[in-house]
Fold this sequence. Notes:
Elements: H1 7-30, E1 46-49, E2 52-55, E3 60-66, E4 69-74, H2 80-89, E5 97-98, E6 103-106, H3 112-149, H4 155-188
Antiparallel strand pairs: 1-2, 3-4, 4-6, 5-6
Amino acid sequence: MSTFGTSKEAIAAAKTRMEKAIEDFRKELATVRTGRANASILDNVRVDYHGTPMPVNQLGSVTVPDPTMIVIAPWDTSAVAMIDKAIRTSDLGLNPTNDGKVVRVPVPSPTEERRKELVKHMHKVRENHLTAVRNIRRDSKEAIDKLEKDKKISQDEQKRSLDELEKLTHSETKKIEDMAVAKEKEVMDIK
């Protein structure tokens, strides 16, 4: 735990760390399949491109011509088979096809069972990020308490700072909850 000279620094650091946790949550939610084609579901797929693991979107253009299809047009056509294999072996449950020039990835609507698995996975991810926010709050509270103990801030300042920290934690936790609810609705919406 780094030491802070003021409670404002401790709160600002907490805010920055919490915002990073929320951004991380947002990115992780983007990779969850909903049944609508979305290029970001391929964000965590790594292609073994001549011995280097590379994200799909760095090997070619990724487009979504319609809600059920993702098309990857690699800049180097020798990467077509590698991209196809990487998507096929990912845990996304997708079956790409290729014609030697582009990789087409049909995105079927997930089954009811798969949707429930996705929601369960999202609950776990949400819980991990809520825990991260709570840990940041705990670290910051300890830092603020230490400032008061070391007589760097008054008890009034400590109380004000802890109240501010609580409000911050509440608003950041609510953002995570709201995103999770919206994504869950999207996943469970059967097209």
